[in-house]
Specification:
Blueprint lengths: L2 H10 L36 H16 L26 H22 L4 E2 L2 E2 H12 L19 H15 L1 H4 L5 H15 L9 H13 L6 H12 L2 E3 L2 E2 L7 H22 L1 H13 L34 H4 L6 H16 L5 E2 L2 E2 L37 H4 L16 E5 L4 E6 L4 E5 L24 E2 L17 E4 L5 E3 L2 E8 L2 E8 L2 E13 L2 E8 L5 E11 L6 E7 L2 E7 L3 E9 L3 E8 L7 E11 L6 E11 L6 H4 L2 E7 L4 E6 L4 E5 L2
Antiparallel strand pairs: 1-2, 3-4, 5-6, 7-8, 8-9, 9-10, 11-12, 11-17, 13-14, 14-15, 15-16, 16-23, 17-22, 18-19, 19-20, 20-23, 21-22, 24-25, 25-26
Helix pairs in contact: 2-3, 3-4, 3-5, 5-8, 7-8, 8-9, 8-10, 10-11
């Protein structure tokens, strides 16, 4: 056994588990079912390591329904819309994605059982055969070497993914190859790895390719490897957050952090300990805020790009047991991780054609990026690299709990502010929701990939209970401002500039992309059951404007709309039988509208939103738009103190300061600079 295999065995050693007990896929809606859930060790999800194993096999079996012999590629039905391929030239890369990304799921299963068979196909033999097609010029799956002056491409991404799996299970997919095949594969992969990249998490794809082949004794560009390592570390900000040029989201957290800790374990500690030490120090910090992005029940919110990777978001958590420090609550992290897996695998819309859709639950075109194909979704398979941890690892053996949530008080709200990323995560004990406010400052005209300026990032906030809804062409807007612009089109804010987080209030300025005269100072104040918005309009021209609450999807029964008075305020309330949303115009709004929409929500065809409306007139004096956006479970009554929490408002300092007196005795001062 080589030193590398000894190191991997020490870290990744796993007990050989029987594959006789598998997750059954015979229920009517084809969702994943737990076989013998264990509520003693996992009181909130019933999930054990065996169930994670079953979940991985469930996904891999779906992919293998397209494989009848070794020559069949991992190519799945294209989802209509912007996803690729749109021409035959992209098909080899599409096949490469399907191959390398499903291998993330297959690799840990093959590590346990090298003779794994699915659909009468020997899985290890299949991947070895397909890898050899990548270097066979006569094969339709052949990957052409990067041209001498060629730039970064999707092939680089997938080869980086393949390098990770080669590190994980070399005895199954690397060592059995002939020396000629190894040399040809090295030449193909290094043509991309030893080359340019994108200044984002992509540098890790070069890093893994260069690292694997250096570890195998090949001559590699070590100067470039160190350059990309050093540059990757410069993306780190604070509290576990890396900047992904320029965004912060689930992916910027879990991709950087997982890649850093995996590289450290399989390669960095041996060859570059100084870089490994820095990646591990950053890895420990993710515990500071990241777990709070998940709801009380452990589910994740719909936020940021690459939403279709879903449960990939939890992939760093299992490795916190070894690298997170003594204060890490692994029971909480496993509860979050298991619940997020079930959140999707048990949703009836998750699978179509036996493979996951491009979307959040079901297919949802507004979330899809143009760099994605149907096989892209298996990037989520990184969550199952956790199966490389042995059965007696504390991540599997500790009892699930609800972490910090169990100590929260229902009548309070808990904010977690990360200073360098300038983002705010909020936990709401009463509803169990998590929420985030973070970077967005991308112009549509500069957004060549058409996702950083969209609803993926431009909402005022994102909530785990209320997935974001796409904007409508008639001004229907959810959790954002919309203005009727000079082209007579409704346009939302997307150019935000963070100012400060002070006294429980999150301050931003915003300007309309197509008209810099339209601008506002925005202040979000999370309350125990919602948000108080204290926004100052400093627009000096006439403009029609709207503000939207979150949206509610329609389920079994039509959404109802009611009003309720409390003192001088009146709430408009919508109810879908699961949740209620209430909106109260405190100051500066003319009217509220309940709008029924179709085809805009990720969970249902029909949905409803509440929009506040106003016709702003040009003025040298700033106008205030104060509103309450509240929520609670359906069936619970609204109390007057919830609809009317504000006792009085006091403007001072030439309307630059607003003192809010609440009925519960709290006092908050909003101070505009």
């Amino acid at each position: 056994m080589t030193l590398k295999k000894k190191a991997l065995t020490l870290f990744f050693a796993v007990l050989g588990l029987s594959f006789a007990t598998q997750a059954q896929n015979n229920n009517s809606n084809n969702t994943f079912q737990l076989d013998n859930p264990n509520y003693d060790i996992s009181p909130y999800t019933g999930m054990t390591r065996q169930h994670w194993h079953d979940a991985a096999l469930y996904l891999l079996k779906g992919a293998f329904t397209y494989i009848d012999d070794l020559d069949d590629p991992m190519k799945f039905p294209k989802q209509p819309g912007k996803s690729y391929p749109h021409n035959e030239g992209r098909v080899p890369t599409e096949k490469l994605e399907g191959l390398c990304r499903t291998l993330f799921i297959a690799a840990p299963l093959l590590h346990e059982n090298p003779e794994l068979t699915i659909n009468n196909i020997n899985v290890g033999e299949y991947y070895r055969h397909q890898i050899k097609q990548l270097i066979n010029p006569d094969s339709p799956a052949y990957i052409v070497h990067r041209a001498k002056n060629g730039g970064p491409s999707q092939n680089l991404v997938e080869y980086g993914a393949l390098a990770i799996s080669l590190f994980v299970v070399p005895e199954v997919i690397w060592e059995p190859l002939s020396q000629q095949d190894k040399d040809d594969l090295a030449a193909s992969m290094l043509s991309y790895g030893d080359g340019p990249t994108v200044d984002s998490n992509w540098k890790f794809f070069n890093i893994f390719v260069l690292s694997f082949f250096k570890d195998q004794g090949y001559d590699v560009n070590e100067e470039l490897l160190e350059k990309y390592l050093a540059r990757s570390l410069t993306h780190y900000r604070s509290d576990g957050w890396y900047n992904d040029s320029p965004a912060y989201d689930y992916y910027s957290m879990w991709a950087f952090q997982l890649y850093g800790v995996l590289w450290t374990e399989v390669f960095g500690n041996k060859y570059y300990p100084e870089y490994a030490e820095k990646f591990l120090a950053n890895f420990k910090d993710l515990y500071n805020s990241y777990p709070h992005m998940f709801a009380k029940d452990g589910s994740m919110m719909m936020y940021g790009r690459s939403i279709s990777y879903r449960m990939g978001s939890i992939s760093p958590f299992p490795f916190m047991g070894k690298y997170g420090g003594d204060d890490v609550n692994l029971g909480w992290l496993r509860m979050i991780s298991s619940k997020t897996i079930l959140q999707f695998l048990q949703h009836p819309d998750f699978l179509k054609d036996n493979v996951p859709t491009l979307g959040f639950y079901g297919a949802y075109e507004p979330t899809v990026q143009n760099y994605s194909c149907r096989g892209s979704v298996f990037w989520m398979g990184k969550a199952f690299l956790s199966l490389l941890l042995p059965e007696d690892n504390p991540f599997w053996t500790v009892k699930e709990d609800q972490g910090d949530w169990k100590d929260y008080e229902n009548d309070k709200v808990y904010n977690y502010f990360a200073s360098s990323p300038e983002l705010l995560i909020t936990d709401y004990p009463e509803s169990g929701a998590s929420e985030i406010r973070a970077w967005c400052h991308e112009k549509v005209k500069d957004d060549w990939q058409k996702f950083r300026s969209t609803e993926n990032y431009n909402r005022l906030s994102y909530n785990s209970i209320f997935p974001w809804q796409a904007d409508g062409s008639n001004g229907e807007v959810a959790m954002n401002y919309a203005f009727l612009n000079q082209k007579n089109e409704w346009e939302v804010f997307r150019l935000y500039s963070f100012q400060k987080f002070e006294d429980g209030a999150y301050y931003r300025d915003a300007v309309l992309e197509t008209d810099e005269q339209i601008k506002m100072n925005l202040v979000d104040i999370p309350l125990p059951n919602g948000i108080l918005r204290v926004d100052r309009n400093i627009t000096d021209k006439d403009v029609k404007m709207r503000l939207g609450h979150y949206a509610l999807p329609e389920f079994e029964t039509p959404i109802t709309s009611t009003t309720k008075k409390a003192g001088k305020y009146k709430a408009t309330i919508i109810d879908n039988g699961k949740h209620q949303l209430a909106m109260i115009p405190v100051m500066g709004w003319t009217d509220l509208e309940v709008i029924e929409t179709e085809g805009l929500h990720p969970e249902s065809k029909k949905s409803s939103i509440i929009n506040a409306t106003y016709q702003h007139k040009a003025s040298d004096t700033p106008e205030f738009h104060i509103s309450l956006m509240l929520w609670k479970e359906s069936g619970k009554k609204w109390k007057s103190k919830e609809i009317n929490p504000i006792k009085s408002l006091e403007f001072t300092n030439n309307n630059k300061s607003l003192i809010l007196h609440f009925h519960n005795g709290d006092v908050k001062t909003v101070q505009f600079d």
